[in-house]
Request: fold
Amino acid sequence: MEKIKIAWCQSSSQGSLVKNHLFYLNQCRELALHGAELIFLPELFLWDYICIEEKIHHFDQAIPLDHPCIEEYRSLAREFKICLFLPIFEKRAEGLYHNTILSIGVSGETLDLYRKMHLPHDNSFYEKYYFTPGDRGFRVVETPKLKVGTLICWDQWFPEAARLTAMQGAELLYYPTAIAWDMNEPDECYEDQLESWKTILRSHSIANNVFTLAVNRIGTEKHLQFWGNSLLSNPIGRVMEQLIIEPQKPIVEITLREIGEHRKAWPFFRDRRIDEYKGLTQRWLD
Reply:
């Protein structure tokens, strides 16, 4: 049974694009030196979480896909023959921006580009102000060892997104996140929100018999406390690794054989009633 070493980095913003770039580049290098084959980073890892407020000057922080810092990650991937998953604030054109995952292959090439499909817009998460909804559909990235389904944060609350990604052959669902407690809310909300988040992630593993990885931020930015708790669950929802709210960068071995074994025992895809699901393409059944 071939084991695949995946790694991720849970940390807080260092306060600027330059500082974040150097910090995460060094983190990725260290993980690669310790044998990581695929490395996953948090949502918008190069920036503070700008969506706490609606400020037009934040658009100036977006970067194109050929930005010099991206080229350094490509060089790192080539040097260590690793795959990198970079969640970025993409400048596609003037006035057109996306919340994007850029997937980089072992030769430094672009493997795929996923643009966030579901965008939240509520107090402190004003993403519809900054980002254009994704236009590339749900994606699966084929790396030499693992098929990765790329989704982002708010996407995690929609089982349709996980299902459609798994149906394309994803073996691991990857959710970079920037999810936090609003410190203006009552403390008693915190545990319920965190438990809901962990439960929905594990449920995607169970319903689709795939690995699920969520990589969250930590730290305090204005009135948001990013709650960390990055986790990896296996194809029956068992948590293989869960962090708390400390900066960490674990390396975990996964075995793809688990997917087939669990799908034989729980054949959900066999038993789906696709002839009865037409209503799922409607907003609501009146």
